[in-house]
Amino acid sequence: MRFEYLFKETTSGLRRNGLVAFAAISTTFIALLLFGLALLISRQVSLMIEATTGNVEVAVYLTDPVNPDTVRSLTTTLTDLPVVENVDFESKDEACERFRKLFANQEALVNNVDCNALPASLRVRLEDPEKYAQVEAVLQGQPGIDRIVDQSAFLDRLFAVTRVFRVGVLLISLVMLVSAAILIANTVRMGLFARRKEIGIMKLVGATNWRIRIPFLVEGLFESLVGATVAILVLFGLKVAFINPLNESVQFVPWIVNSDVIAIVPWLVLAAVVVSLLASLVGMRRFLDV
Amino acid sequence: MISLQHVTKVYRNGTTALEDVSVEVEKGEFLFIVGQSGSGKSTFVRLILKEEQATKGEIYVAGKNLAKLTSWKVPHLRRNIGTVFQDFKLLQDKTVFENVAFTLEVIGKTKQVIDQRVPEILELVGLGDKLNNFPDELSGGEQQRVSLARACVNRPLVLLADEPTGNLDPTTSVEIMRLLDKVNRIGTTVVMATHDQAIVDAMRRRVVELDKGKVIRDQARGVYS
Predict the structure, then answer these.
(1) At the topology level of CATH, where does A57-150 sit?
(2) What ipTM is given for this predicted complex?
């Protein structure tokens, strides 16, 4: 098929129903923007979880004074468990150091706390944070343990909150994608209707159905890809506008970086292509029976 | 070239448009199909183009059984059949050249072929100087010549004309008939549905007369009635 023919048919189609095309483009844009946001939020949440829990899922606080033999035997017991990824010993001094760092901007707190009050601990990282019970079971009754603190309660809440948010955004984006599809189907259908005489003649002189369909497919594809491009640009803009300042001021949390945004681009483009092709095919289904 | 064997066409609303029609058209023949409005002339044309399916009987065009032709092969059938209609069916927003070129474009001919063949065929129908005019700047006879050029530019085996002179005055009609005759003389089979008595009588070609969907006369070198 000659490119010139394709180009001519597609652009004339876009000109003809510009307003509907605009509606299709903007709906695709909003849908893909929300879709991209959902993906980025997921990424941000998993980064935060990695930062807060990737280091420690279970803290085993030890009684004073700490016996090096106890530390050694507990560490061995723990590392023998298959769910345990690794075990770190944090001495009282290290605990104090971490405390000072964590609350560096609250001097009163730092000055009033006696570092001696902070216990030494074994910090356990699990392969699967949900298998916390196994750790507790194996440590039950061992000497030298003050208490075992599981972060899973905190994690559960974090997961619950972010899940609602993520699923919500994803659902909205899904609804928007469906409406984008309907609008694209509509532009295609209007285009077919506006050109029914032309199409009748095309069929009469022996144009194949695909010959007639492809300009409309390209038209729908063009609309959704324009929407996708704008959505990607806006996502980058949002990242620069909101995440970059946070990155400066809130440094103890890892934030998404540009490469995270780039990583979702293929998914957005794929969504745009799939939606527009499906929509166009549905839009012209009944029109093109020979 | 075209063969209808005991063809019956009943439309979905129950109207019987053709009933047990058998007609053989040889290659290179010129055939008139005459009859009143509603006698089945247009159905005859639509069946040959496979715009409609026969309810009963078999239709062969250029050796192919239309009933067995899959839908994706229909376009290839139509490339062998040129069509001319009473209402010209020209695209108003395209020039004369573009209207004719359109046929070649949609079947994927290259620009070189188009640039060579389109002016050639338009010259042949006497519109060599109107390439860049739009259809509404032409007279009815000229528009019908454009549509004739479009039908012939792809060098079809068969030319189907459904009331081609229906909207034209007698003088213009004669011009169109001269062209159809010319097309026929270079070997194209021509099937023309008409109720223009003067033309049929003047041409003295084979006449098939339909009445209420039945063939009531099939006469070589015939007249209208």
Answers:
(1) Alpha-Beta Plaits (3.30.70)
(2) 0.82
